[in-house]
Structures are given as C-alpha cells and as structure tokens.
C-alpha cells in the first residue's frame, strides 16, 4: 500500500504518541502487527471487546472481515490496497464496524493501523456496551448524530401519542354526537345513519332487517304525577329493557321524548317478531317503583319488514312502522302490530 507523504508524517506522529495518547485521539483504533496480531487498541474498542487477553490476540479471534478478497489468507494480505473496510464483531455479528486502514510500514514491528467507528448500528452499540461521550473522539459526530436520532424518536413517539389522543377524542366526540345523553342508547342521527346503511346493504346482498317503532303508553301520567325525574328514570329503565331483549348486532335508539326505534338485523320471521314485541311489552308493563311510589306503563309497537319491499326506502319503512304503531294504539294499546306486506290492510297508510 502506497502512503502519501503527508500521511507518512501523520503516521510517524501517531507512532511517536504511543497507545495512550493515540487512544485519546482515536478511542477505537486498532494496531495490528505484520502477523495480524493486536499490538495496541483504543480504550473504547477495549471496552467493546470486553475483559480478557486482547494484546497479542489474532485479529480473527474478535473480528470478521466483511467482503474479504477471495484467495487471500491473513488479515494483512486481505487488507492489501484497501483504504476503507467493514468489519463485524464475532461476539455480536449483527453489529458492523466501519473504518479506514493504513499500512504503517516504517519498521519491522510496524503493521496496520485501523481507525474504526460504528455505522448504522451506533445506537444499538451505545446501548449494548454502555458507551458514553468519552468513548468517542472529540471530532467524532457520533454522539451528536445519536442525540439527533433520539430526539427524532422522541418527537415521533410524541406525534404517535398525539395521534392516538386525537383519534380517541374524535371517536369520543362521534360517539357523543350519536348517543342519547339521558339513556345512553343511540340517538336519532345514529339511527338514520344505521338505517341508510342497512338499506344500501340490501342492494349488495346484505341481510334483511326489521324496523320497530316503540311508543310508551301512559308515560305522560308518570311525568305529571311523579315529576320529570321519575320520567327520566323510567326512560332509562325502558332503554335497559330494550337492550336486554335485543341482540348486540341490533340497534336501540331513542328518537323522541318517549319514542324508541329498533333496527333488528336479520329479522324476517313475522311470528318471531310478534313474539319479541309481546315480550318487550310484558316487561315494560311490570310495576315500576320510584321512591315510595309505584307506577305502570305499557307500550305500543309497530313493525315494518324489509323483505316486504321491492326497493325499500327509509321514508316508506318509517311511515309503515308508524302506521302499524297507531293501529296498535287504536286496538287498545299495549299491542304489537306488523305492517301488512301489501301496506293496504286496515288503513296502514292512513
């Protein structure tokens, strides 16, 4: 290896400094004799290789030369003519070292001088070997780069946390915007959106469904006799009953003062729907206690089924469910009526 004149002068200076002084300038230097044995090494490199006999050890005991030239034996031969090298630690082969190499070539005991540093594995090496700023040369930008990397990671973590908080806030706001604040069930907006989704789904082969309109009977008398606090508690109790009698896939919504609607996914059996309505009414007719007072209510229910329509719309289904509801009231309240498939019997559209 030919060494320029200026480099020769520097190498003479480096040799004259001795290992300790050289280690202050290059904490990760490695000096190899012509046989490829370690003659001296910097304090940082010594810290990385760990305790044990290092001086006199062969280069191959601790390092693996990456991309060694084929047919070359011995580290001196393998490095002949090289200015830059890439190594890996035998104890930690995933950690790569990069560096420059110079053939000292000024005496029988001279050999190769390697000045090493970490590449992309800097942060991993600092954590693994407990390196500090003193383990790097004063002119080395490694620690500054590490600080920048850590600062970047901190900023990215904060941004991720902020994104999560914003998404949680968005979902919370969306949930509040679609939830009835008194009963905790869905509100009118949520019901309208869900109904439109179900109707659009029918055109893509989605499940049929039923729409049930529930209106409380005798609720006004509870408000008038026991007050609005009792009425609010009664509405919460009604919402609880409706959720208990329906499935998790169904939707319960409060759309008015004492009006609720149910979206029953996959429901198309008229007998089962009628039985569900009667079961709900029976539970709502159970005595309700508020303080020392006991009151009773009932409910009238009207149901419209999506299979009864060639192309159902929200307006028509709601109108037919309302008509079935008012039929229940005309027949004496506390009843469940299903809209006729022809939507003509018994004044369903009246």
From TrEMBL:
This is GGDEF domain-containing protein. Residues 207-341 form the GGDEF domain. InterPro entries: DGC-Regulatory_Protein (IPR052163), GGDEF_dom (IPR000160), Nucleotide_cyclase (IPR029787), Rev_trsase/Diguanyl_cyclase (IPR043128).
